[in-house]
Amino acid sequence: MAVNPHAQEQIKTIISELRILYERYRAAHAWTNQQDIIGLCIMLLSNALIITTAWLWFINLVPTWFTIVLIAFLTSMLHELEHDLIHELYFKRHKVMYHVMMLGVYLFRPISLNPWIRKYWHHFHHQHSGMPFDIEERGITNGDRFSILRLLVLPDLLLSGIIRMPRLRKEILIEYNKGNLSKNDLRLIIRTVLVGLLPFGVPLTILWYAFILLHLLQWMGYPLPQLDALLSWIYPLMVLLVVPNLIRQFALHFVSSNMHYNGDVEHGNVIQQVQVFMPWWSYPMQWFCFFFGATHAIHHFVVNEPFYLRQFTRKKAQEVLINNGVRVNDVRNIRFANRYHHS
Ligand SMILES: [Zn+2]
Ligand SMILES: [Zn+2]
């Protein structure tokens, strides 16, 4: 299905107005030319702050809740950097540095999808956003009916994958038979399922459930003193890596899976693919996904700008989008399995 002519005009207008906005901003701020160095510095600073916070927690200078909240916020910046790296916005011609940065943004977000594997699915997401075979978004529950179970599996890719696997498998085969997914896509889906959460995601998520189970057993009156040593070894991993990333992933996956439409949009119609999503009650979540709901729709029109420029110009860019037909704060779509045509 081709994009309708009215939307084509709207998309063209948005892209050209956003390009002018970015050009003007770059012309007025010469520092933006140092893109590689800026990306590297943000990564080093975020990682250094995470390590410092962890050290302060180890020596009992900061409380556990503060450590978790701060690390969750810092890792949200690393996620934006990873996304920029997937679009090759830093060290494009310096492969070693590029992969060092890919590793650097992954290490403290270890329960997320391996970024080298995510790269293919994210580009696929841009090509086919909103379609039932947009694997990246279907992977984080976009298009599912709203339920407590959907909320429960949102932060946890392993649990979500296991519980939703039979349905996703059926859907993928339907899309393959329609010709929307190629043999190569199927091969990559299998690879993603098998190794996408390795080397860190699967072991850490299993440890997380072991941690909960052991605490539950103790709480139910089965003291397991022989396991105390194990628990004291697992505890720092949970506080410093798993829990902050579960919070961050809940926020990101909630915002992302509700700001992208799914299932009934025109193929390639960016106006219908996304919305500006920042209702007041989503603000606590926006802090843990670096205001993804406010800026990701802009990215779908102009992909090759780094996340911090999107933040600095977001007010004007949002106006451009909204004035040209992109929806804003359409929370009703949550009740209608993220369909665009829901009223
Ligand atoms: Zn992107
Ligand atoms: Zn997107």
Which SSEs are present, and which pair or pack?
Elements: H1 5-28, H2 35-58, H3 64-86, H4 95-106, H5 115-128, H6 135-139, H7 148-153, H8 157-178, H9 183-195, H10 201-219, H11 228-259, H12 270-273, E1 275-276, H13 283-287, H14 292-301, H15 307-312, H16 314-323, E2 327-328
Parallel strand pairs: 1-2
Helix pairs in contact: 1-16, 2-3, 3-4, 3-11, 10-11, 11-14, 14-16
Bound molecules: zinc ion (2 copies).
Main sheet properties: 2 strands, parallel
Bulk shape: globular
**Cα-to-Cα separation, first versus last residue:** 22 Å
**Can you tell me the number of structural domains?**
1
Bound molecules: zinc ion
What is the number of helices? 16
**Poorly predicted tracts of residues:** none
Q: Could you give the order of the helices and strands?
A: HHHHHHHHHHHHEHHHHE
Gyration radius, in Å: 21 Å
Number of strands: 2
Mean pLDDT metric? 97
Q: Could you give the order of strands across the largest sheet? A: 1-2
Report the sheet-strand fraction: under 5%
The residue fraction in helices comes out at 55-70%
Structural class: mainly alpha
Describe this entry's structure for a reader:
- This protein has 343 residues and is an all-alpha fold.
- It has one domain.
- Helices cover 67% and strands 1% of the residues.
- It is built from 16 helices and 2 strands.
- The chain has helices at residues 5-28, 35-58, 64-86, 95-106, 115-128, 135-139, 148-153, 157-178, 183-195, 201-219, 228-259, 270-273, 283-287, 292-301, 307-312, 314-323; strands at residues 275-276, 327-328.
- A two-stranded parallel sheet has the order 1-2.
- Helix 11 (228-259) packs across helix 14.
- The longest helix is centred in the C-terminal third of the chain and has 32 residues, at 228-259.
- It is globular.
- The two termini are 22 Å apart.
- Residues 125, 129, 260, 296, 300 line the site of one zinc ion (ZN).
